[in-house]
Design a protein that fits this description.
Blueprint (H helix, E strand, L loop, with lengths): L5 H6 L3 H29 L4 H21 L12 H5 L3 H18 L4
Length: 110
């Protein structure tokens, strides 16, 4: 059997399932970035060390989602691997917001 073209492969995806998967991936990445911001704030990380926590969190979350997809994310999410690794602009802003919130709460009198 011939390998399907990308257009044919996209037709095999059921839109409600794709929407559900995208919502779940977005939620997991959002919670991961907020948790990473809380960790960076509580630890008192500043400058590039805080952003290193965000990058590490994004990579670990992407790797766990990759394994959850049995190594074939393009089967479940349009965009495949890139969609898993892409942190998204709103997640970066959420990370910074939670990072500064927890940094201010924990280290206010340092």
């Amino acid at each position: 059997m011939a390998t399907p073209t990308p257009e044919q492969a996209a037709q095999l995806l059921f839109p409600p399932n794709v929407q559900y998967n995208n919502n779940r991936v977005y939620t997991v990445k959002f919670l991961s970035s907020c948790f990473a911001g809380a960790v960076a704030g509580v630890l008192g990380l500043q400058n590039w060390l805080g952003f290193a926590v965000f990058i590490l969190s994004t990579l670990l979350t992407s790797a766990s989602l990759y394994f959850k997809c049995n190594g074939r994310p393009e089967k479940y999410i349009p965009g495949g691997w890139w969609e898993l690794v892409n942190p998204g602009q709103e997640n970066i802003f959420s990370f910074v917001l939670v990072w500064t919130l927890f940094f201010g709460i924990v280290h206010v009198y340092d």
